[in-house]
Each structure stands twice: as structure tokens, then as C-alpha cells.
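Q: Could you fold this chain for me?
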Amino acid sequence: MAKRRVKKKHAEPEPAPQPEPVSQDDQVRRIEKMPKEVGVLLVVAGIGGLLLPGPVGSPFLIVGGVILWPRAFRGVQAYVERRCPKFYHGSMRQVTRFIDDLERRYPLENCDRTAE
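A: Sure. Below is the predicted structure, expressed as C-alpha cells.
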């Protein structure tokens, strides 16, 4: 007699909660308040990305500059936003996802900032 296979019903995984939409100005302020170490990381990622074909590294390089030297790079950021708005908004989404992932993996609350 052959055994009948019973299909097990798997529970559907719950969808991840969607973050509330954040305005572009709030994203820029959040990026400017990031620690200088994150700025260095983004500049290094930007330099590495410039070696790849396409504009992969330039968003990271600009945002890293905004973190390290906000007054000078705010002008560059404004120029890119005016000149290439589609590129700017796509880049902001890419960098924001990267920073969100970085904060999720290494929360800033756990950093000991008193050692500086």
C-alpha cells in the first residue's frame, strides 16, 4: 500500500513593517549628523565605487563629503540636486538604504562616545 503524502501548510511570513516616508530635508539632516567614521566609510566606498563602471561610487563620495565637511559639500549636493534631480533622488535612496542597514547592524546607541 502506497503512503499518501500530506502537504503541510506553511505559515506565510509576516511582511516587514514599512518605514514611514521621510522627507528629503530630514534625510539630509540625518546624514549630516552621522559620526565622522561613517563619513570616512562612505568616502572609501565612493572611491572604490568610482573604480567600477557607471556612477556607482559618486553618491557615496558626495554623502561622505557632506558628513566630513558639510559647508563645502552642501553646495555640491545642491548643484547635483538642481542639475540631475533623478540621479540625486535615486542616489539618496541608495545611500539611505545603506545607512539604514549600517544602523541596523551596528546601532549608534551601543557606541561608547565618551572615549573620544
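A (continued): The radius of gyration is 20 Å.
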